[in-house]
Specification:
Strand content: 35-45%
Shape: elongated
Strand order of the largest sheet: 4-3-2-6-8-11-13-15
Length: 295
């Protein structure tokens, strides 16, 4: 561990993965080797990072400090402390753990074409990004490699920071508000469940874009009048919840992906009896509908 906490002068820390680490205060330069933990002082420090296998902790301490990332760098095994800004250079991709953003106040600058990948953990409470602000136009992606329930946690930051949730494996559980904040897309070979707990007009066609449509579920956990578009996702109505929608434009052609122990109310002025029977066979609760054709 190298500790510069008594230093009030701003320093530039350069970590490039090939040469020894350098710490420069504008006048003097220290050269460091075999260092795992660096702590800088109270100045407005800049860490220029292009990768190293040896560093495990970067602590910027006091001041307004910037972590500047370039190259294709993976910092998921590095603990980042006390940075106010993370910047990803144009055309570059950086990967960090969700734990490095959890409960932090920070700006992420992806410039024009930088990409930041945030790797989710299996611990739901590691994903409270309420103090994170995005600047720049490069994408910020949340990578989900294992099952995790993210409902009840602010993954969207102060200004809809997440552009895409990439589910490579397992199942991610999300709330409707998490996928309708900004223009979020959910993609990948894994599975996703989106909970809807109120009336909704969400068009899920462009939101849920998993490799296998059968891995997408829209789950109604409370009473909801739905006027949006289910896309090609499965529809699940929980016990005690009532899904109110129309058959003609919403459920027609989708009855085969409807299930649950909840209730369904069809708002059509008339529904063919065979369609009513088909819906009734898919749910365990009460079906309410007006049958005027085919009775």
């Amino acid at each position: 561990k190298i500790d510069y906490t008594t230093l009030s002068t701003a320093v530039t820390v350069t970590i490039n993965g090939t040469n020894p680490i350098t710490v420069n205060d504008g006048t003097n330069t220290d050269t460091l080797t075999n260092v795992e933990h660096i702590v800088s002082g109270s100045g407005n420090d800049t860490y220029n990072y292009t990768g190293t296998p040896s560093v495990t902790t970067l602590d910027a301490a006091g001041g307004y400090d910037t972590l500047s990332l370039s190259g294709t760098v993976d910092l998921t095994g590095v603990t980042l402390l006390n940075f106010e800004t993370i910047s990803v250079a144009d055309g570059q991709t950086a990967t960090i753990s969700a734990t490095n953003l959890d409960d932090k106040t920070m700006t992420i600058n992806t410039n024009s074409t930088g990409i930041l990948n945030i790797v989710a953990t299996t611990t739901p409470s590691d994903h409270d990004f309420g103090g994170i602000t995005s600047s720049g136009t490069g994408p910020i992606n949340l990578i989900v490699n294992n099952s995790v329930d993210l409902t009840g946690h602010n993954i969207n930051g102060t200004n809809s920071i997440i552009d895409e949730i990439k589910v490579t494996n397992g199942t991610v559980r999300l709330s409707e508000s998490q996928v309708t904040s900004g223009t979020v897309k959910v993609s990948g070979a894994g599975s996703a469940i989106v909970e809807v707990s109120a009336s909704s007009s969400t068009d899920f066609t462009s939101i849920l874009a998993l490799t296998t449509p059968a891995n997408e579920t829209i789950e109604f956990t409370a009473n909801s009048t739905f006027t949006g578009d289910f896309g090609d996702s499965k529809i699940l109505v929980d016990s005690g919840a009532t899904l109110t929608t129309d058959f003609a434009t919403k459920l027609n052609g989708k009855v085969n992906v409807l299930s649950g122990t909840g209730n369904v109310t069809l708002t059509d002025t008339n529904v063919d009896a065979s369609n009513v029977d088909a819906v009734a066979a898919k749910i365990g609760g009460v079906l309410t509908a007006t049958i005027t054709d085919g009775a």
